[in-house]
Write the structure tokens for this entry.
Amino acid sequence: MVTILDARPRHPEKAHKPDTPVLKKPDWIRVKVPASSPQFAQTRAILRQHGLNTVCEEAGCPNIAECWAGRHATMMIMGDTCTRACAFCNVKTGLPGALVPAEPENVAQAVAKLGLDHIVITSVDRDDLSDGGSAHFAATISAIRALTPDTTIEVLTPDFLRKDGALETVVEAAPDIYNHNLETVPALYLRIRPGARYFHSLRLLQRVKELAPALFTKSGIMVGLGERREEVLQVMDDLRSADVDFLTIGQYLQPTRKHAEVKQFVTPEAFKEYERIAYAKGFLMVSASPLTRSSYHAGDDFVRLRAARFFEQRAKQG
């Protein structure tokens, strides 16, 4: 059974209120920040040199110290300002500036200098662009391929809502893994992700597989927002119906008092149970823990994902 600490009844679906309460974090969610390292400073210096944004900084990721010390960073292209205002996200909202034509090459240069075997490229939502920024994603993939062809590329894209042909543009650029997060259960979309549509996001992931059956797909959700256990299990079923390969589940952490409140801290034992159930439902790869994030240990996870597919195919061949 999945157990939850300090669970409370779910509020009606509505926009989050200012100055929501902040629950005290349990011991298992506390992040031990390692001592500053030369590698951390070098990673920051390379990113600054090329004028790049990272979701690590903009979203206030709790794993930034560990990842940057290991010379890993998730690049956030197309600026630091999002056209949406999701209740969970710490990225600022507003009218973004123009795209920087040199950004794809700048990302590629940083990837080369960091010596990355695997890179995750994400972005803000750019509803102001006719293609949602899909061509910029494709250009970034192409620039990395040209400079470091052995680097595997993971994209974590927006939903490209009402942007015909955008998804196809990114898939044609042939990343190694396509990630799009559902973020939460359908019943919480109006309150947590009001600018998105659950079944549109699900259909996007399904469409990726239709366009490129061999392309790995990935999605993730946060827990602790007031979702019920059976709702999480239904999301798993929905993702498997879309043939998604990799599922991530992590604890939602409230960035500020202006964001949606944490309704409960899900225990490590509950995460292990979610992981067990997800594997039983047929996911090739599952990462479920309080500090799991879409890009956390993404390179190591991608190696394991490829190995899982290899063994699955070999088992099918007898």
Notes: Confidence is low (pLDDT under 50) at residues 1-16. The first strand starts at residue 4 and ends at 5. The chain has eleven helices and twelve strands.
